[in-house]
């Protein structure tokens, strides 16, 4: 049991290291190539930032798969066509993303490219063969049904990740959380129940974690580089490939035998049912954002692919959350849904798991309702935390100086909480009107 863990850890470290080391040169290349689009009305960053971070992430993907192919317990995965299918689809979607980051690609062309990439994976064997339905059993799919379902799952997952890529570090962090939870589930199926068909999904999730972890240090707020569509579509496709592999390749009847009965097998397969409905339970937040965006834009008479500032992360900024706090809240909800689903699949008869999820949900709601709460680090840790988390020094100063410091701190917090768009406009209107209204309210 220990040897596979060490090999997975080595694959994770190599993928993360290669991605991290490549991101710096890729950033310089993106600047030289002019892949720095002007700030748009829906953007929350204030300076033009280079894209094409997906180039480094694709390099990490190739390095991780190359190392895994030479490891004792993982090289058996490469005896199947699934890693080759993943790499083929990833290369196509990556090229499409690079073209979009540099020159821009029409939304319908991107949709067609996503379908082609999914179709290439299907042709090489990465497809859904059957569906486990509770109360009915295993339903075998025809080749046409399997192809359509696989393409739909891949396209939905890619766009869900692409839609949520709106704040520094948001998409890479949420996908990393999703990959960690998915790894725990797939690893349990492989080594817990001895089902070798879950091995490719386990490897894909480890490589995906490494890609995100290696890119995150460069992408945290304030970001030095964006992953762009070349990165967001790439990690969405890798996540979808893992979902297709573990959902459509693992025989539920075999799991029934390994788990020791129908009841135990049904419990073990709980997270497999949900990915068929929502690509992945661990991506429930971006999928919900995707569906809400489509409904909102269609209701307003716009194209479903027309960009706007109505996403969940934009709403968090509107109600007063800072950039970093909005990202952490999205992390919290993603981790709660992801690891809650994994814990429920391990023991869905435990009441403590349900009570824990309810309690953590209440904590999350409290965080949402306290947008103006600013955490402060203890005094002994002030030297190692960013300035915004330090307490105002209580030195012997005159009252006028203290009032000026407090006013400056309040103004800085307002600037951080509501990022400006074009010409100083914010997500909820002109900056000056918002600040004046806030100050007027604070005097009452």
Question: What does this protein look like?
Answer:
The protein has helices spanning 2-33, 54-68, 82-102, 107-123, 143-164, 170-193, 199-219, 228-248, 252-259, 262-268, 270-277, 284-299, 312-318, 323-346, 351-369, 399-417, 431-443, and strands at 130-133, 137-140, 425-426, 429-430. The chain contains 17 helices and 4 strands. The protein has a two-stranded antiparallel sheet. It has a two-stranded antiparallel ribbon with strand order 3-4. The chain is mainly α and 444 residues long.
Write a compact overview of the structure shown:
This protein has 444 residues and is an all-alpha fold.
Strand content: under 5%
* Total helical segments: 17
Average pLDDT across residues?
A: 76
Q: Can you give the helix content as a percent range?
A: 55-70%
């Amino acid at each position: 049991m220990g040897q596979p863990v060490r090999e997975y850890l080595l694959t994770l470290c190599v993928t993360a290291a290669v991605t991290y080391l490549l991101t710096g040169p890729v950033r310089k290349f993106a600047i030289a190539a002019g892949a720095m689009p002007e700030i748009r009305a829906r953007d929350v960053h204030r300076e033009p930032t280079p894209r094409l971070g997906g180039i480094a992430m694709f390099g990490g993907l190739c390095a991780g798969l190359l190392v895994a192919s030479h490891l004792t317990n993982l090289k058996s995965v490469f005896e199947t066509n699934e890693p080759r299918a993943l790499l083929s689809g990833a290369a196509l979607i990556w090229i499409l993303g690079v073209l979009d980051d540099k020159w821009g690609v029409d939304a319908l062309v991107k949709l067609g490219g996503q379908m082609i990439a999914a179709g290439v994976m299907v042709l090489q064997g990465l497809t859904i063969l059957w569906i486990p339905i509770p109360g009915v059993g295993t339903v075998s799919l025809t080749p046409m049904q399997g192809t359509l379902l696989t393409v739909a799952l891949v396209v939905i997952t890619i766009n869900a990740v692409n839609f949520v890529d709106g704040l520094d570090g948001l998409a890479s962090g949420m996908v990393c959380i999703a990959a960690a939870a998915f790894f725990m589930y797939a690893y349990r199926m492989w080594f817990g129940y001895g089902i070798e068909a879950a091995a490719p999904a386990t490897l894909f999730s480890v490589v995906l974690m490494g890609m995100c972890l290696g890119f995150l240090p460069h992408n945290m707020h304030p970001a030095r580089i964006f992953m762009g569509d070349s990165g967001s579509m790439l990690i969405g496709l890798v996540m979808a490939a893992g979902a297709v592999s573990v959902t459509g390749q693992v025989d539920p009847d075999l799991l029934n035998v390994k788990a020791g009965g129908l009841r135990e097998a049904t419990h073990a397969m709980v997270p497999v049912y949900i990915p068929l409905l929502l690509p992945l339970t661990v991506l429930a937040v971006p999928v919900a954002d995707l569906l809400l965006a489509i409904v909102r834009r269609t209701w307003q008479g716009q194209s479903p692919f027309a960009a706007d500032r109505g996403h969940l992360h934009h709403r968090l900024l509107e109600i007063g959350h800072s950039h970093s706090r909005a990202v952490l809240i999205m992390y919290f909800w993603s981790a709660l849904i992801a690891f809650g689903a994994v814990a429920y699949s391990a023991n869905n008869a435990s009441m403590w798991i349900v009570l824990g999820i309810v309690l953590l949900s209440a904590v999350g709601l409290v965080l949402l309702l306290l947008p103006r709460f600013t955490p402060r680090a203890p005094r002994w840790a002030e030297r190692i935390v960013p300035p915004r988390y330090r307490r105002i020094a209580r030195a012997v100063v005159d009252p006028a100086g203290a009032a000026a410091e407090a006013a400056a701190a309040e103004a800085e917090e307002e600037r951080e909480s509501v990022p400006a768009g074009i010409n100083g406009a914010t997500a909820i209107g002109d900056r000056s009107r918002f600040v004046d209204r806030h100050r007027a309210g604070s005097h009452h």
